[in-house]
Structures are given as structure tokens and as C-alpha cells.
Write a structure and sequence with these properties.
Blueprint: H1 7-18, E1 47-52, E2 55-60, E3 63-67, H2 80-89, E4 97-101, E5 104-108, E6 111-115, H3 126-133, E7 142-144, H4 150-153, E8 157-158, E9 161-162, E10 168-172, H5 173-180, H6 186-192, E11 196-199, E12 204-206, E13 209-213, E14 222-228, E15 231-235, H7 245-248, H8 260-277, E16 281-282, E17 291-297, E18 300-305
Parallel strand pairs: 6-7, 7-10, 10-11, 15-16
Antiparallel strand pairs: 1-2, 2-5, 3-4, 5-6, 8-9, 12-13, 13-14, 14-15, 16-17, 17-18
Bound molecules: zinc ion (ZN).
């Protein structure tokens, strides 16, 4: 179920989305009348424009990823019925479990940054979304990679060459080492090597963008904190995958995690931190455009969308 909002509500949400101090959600806040219906506000795919302070940002739809509920991906070791329970309670499909994929574009001065690149040629729609947004792939100056899984790096190459020919490709040193060690990614490595600038997580990687070491899902996974003035947005990569399962049950094992124990710990730590901070997040696999925060409702963690329904 989706909730429509209009007029002043949009304006308030837009302010809230851009200001980390606005409308802070604290544990113990009264629950809304119908918490299980708090889902992403409607946004027409494939392009969703928003602001981070004075910076222009665009969510770019790439595709959907339906995941079979067979206890291999979400809730490894649990029954499909147990995994289905919180989804059904929220009125969401339990099999397949639906993930979405949406890279983020950010402009800061002369820099045009793309965060992750989707599934790639023949699989994802990122190039169509960029065209709809009026962004020339050759104008992108920086591609910031969260980690080396195919739904994040697949779009780096196109027609046997670089999809973003003028962009530096930035990722953590640990992730670059992991990608280079993967024989399945040999072609990708050969093509992108001249463009890769690997970094040690924890510092500024582009104007207004800091990387955060969130290893676990992969050996060098990073999140990116985008800041402009008092406004902040955390690009979470694959710290969380599903807007209900990952948030309500971060302690369930996930088959997508290279190291399931390390992935679980990183996810649990992040959900706990987000629940306490009320920080604004951009979640790559949540319902498009994946903007919102993690709050506590009736004693449990929930994703609260902060997207408005303005369209491109
Ligand atoms: Zn992913």
C-alpha cells in the first residue's frame, strides 16, 4: 500500500529530507496510526530529483531484482514461512521478495558523481535513466563504487569499453584487491584498471563525500556520507538489502554476504546506529528512490520513506 501526500506535506518532507536536524525520530516517539502501511511514497521511475542542501541529486532507476524465498538469501537457516511473516504483515510480497536497484547521481560544482552503476548492458536500465535525466555519460567525472558485486559494478563497462570514459573509478583498496582476485571479473578489471583510484576508507573521496569503512557484506564495502552545510545523506550501498527484512531483522543471515557473520555484524551495527541517529539514508535496494530513515515504531525498527511524489 502506498500513501499519497500533497502540498505542504511535500514541502515539509523535502525540508526534512535535506536537514538532518529536522524532525528527529527518537526511540519512544508515538507510533503512527497504522505503522505497517508506512511504505515508500510514490515516485515515477526512472528518475527522481532531490536536493542535499544546495547540491542536486538524482535517483536513477536501473531495475528490479526478485529474490526467491528459499532461505538461501534472506533468513539463511530459517524457514520460508518465518521469512514471509514480517512481509505478509506489512502487505508485501513474500515470494519472490522484491529488491530494486537505483544508482545515485550527485552534482557538486564541476563534479558529476555516480554512486554504483547497476547491472549493466542488456540487464539494467541505467543508461536509459541517465538519458531521461539529461545526463551525458561522458560528463560523469567520478564513479564511486560501494563494492564489487555485479549489480553495482556491472554498468562500468559497455560495448567492451568504459561506459563512463571520463570518470575516475573510486573504491576502497580492499575492495579493489577483492575484485582483482575474482576471475569472473577479469574483463572488467582489464577495462577499468587505468581509471581506478583506490582509497583507504575514512576520508574525503570527492568534494563533499566521505567514505566509511563498512566491510562485512564484502571485504572492502564502503558507505558514502554526502554533506553540504548542515545537510547530510548516507549512501548505504548494501549494508541493507530489503526495506523490511534488513531493517526489522538485521540479525538474520544473508546469503548475499560474502562473509555471513561479518555481514550480519556490519548490518546490525548500522541499523542500530541509524535507529539512534535518525540519519537520512539513500538505500540502493529499497523501494525507489530509497530515501528515508530508520526509526523505532512500537518498539521495532522500521524504514520510513522521506521521498515525496514529485516527478521528473
Ligand atoms: Zn547490491
Amino acid at each position: 500500500m502506498r500513501t499519497m501526500m500533497t502540498g505542504a506535506a511535500f514541502a515539509a518532507l523535502m525540508l526534512a529530507a535535506c536537514n538532518p536536524n529536522a524532525n528527529p525520530q527518537k526511540p519512544g516517539d508515538p507510533a503512527p496510526p497504522n505503522p505497517t502501511q508506512t511504505v515508500a511514497a510514490p515516485a515515477e521511475k526512472p528518475v527522481y530529483r532531490f536536493k542535499i542542501g544546495a547540491l542536486d541529486a538524482i535517483a536513477l532507476f536501473d531495475g528490479e531484482n526478485p529474490v526467491k524465498n528459499d532461505n538461501q538469501t534472506f533468513g539463511v537457516g530459517l524457514t520460508p514461512q518465518a521469512v514471509a511473516a514480517p512481509l505478509t504483515a506489512a502487505g508485501q510480497p513474500a515470494d519472490p521478495i522484491m529488491l530494486e536497484i537505483h544508482p545515485l547521481l550527485l552534482r557538486n560544482g564541476a563534479r558529476t558523481m555516480l554512486f554504483d552503476t547497476g547491472l549493466g548492458e542488456g540487464k539494467g536500465q541505467l543508461m536509459d535513466s541517465l538519458q531521461k535525466a539529461g545526463v551525458d555519460p561522458a560528463s560523469i567525472t567520478d564513479v564511486l563504487i560501494s563494492h564489487g558485486h555485479p549489480d553495482h559494478v556491472g554498468g562500468l563497462i559497455r560495448n567492451g569499453g568504459l561506459a563512463f570514459p571520463n570518470a575516475a573509478v573510486r573504491m576502497s583498496q580492499a575492495e579493489w584487491a577483492s575484485i582483482r582476485a575474482n576471475p569472473e571479473l577479469a574483463d572488467l578489471v582489464r577495462i577499468i584498471t587505468p581509471k581506478v583510484q583506490a582509497f583507504e576508507p575514512g576520508g574525503e573521496v570527492a568534494p563533499g563525500v566521505q567514505s566509511q569503512d563498512t566491510a562485512g557484506h564484502t571485504p572492502g564495502h564502503v558507505a558514502y556520507l554526502i554533506a553540504n552545510g548542515q545537510n547530510q545523506l548516507l549512501y548505504t550501498g548494501d549494508l541493507m538489502h530489503h526495506w523490511i527484512l534488513s531493517v526489522e531483522h538485521p540479525d538474520w543471515k544473508v546469503g548475499y554476504d560474502d562473509d555471513q557473520a561479518a555481514g550480519l555484524k556490519a548490518r546490525l551495527d548500522e541499523v542500530t546506529a541509524l535507529r539512534n541517529s535518525g540519519a537520512h539514508i539513500y538505500a540502493y535496494h529499497f523501494p525507489f528512490p530509497g530515501l528515508g530513515k530508520v526509526a523505532t515504531r512500537e518498539g521495532r525498527a522500521m524504514f520510513i520513506s522521506e521521498a515525496q511524489s514529485a516527478k521528473d
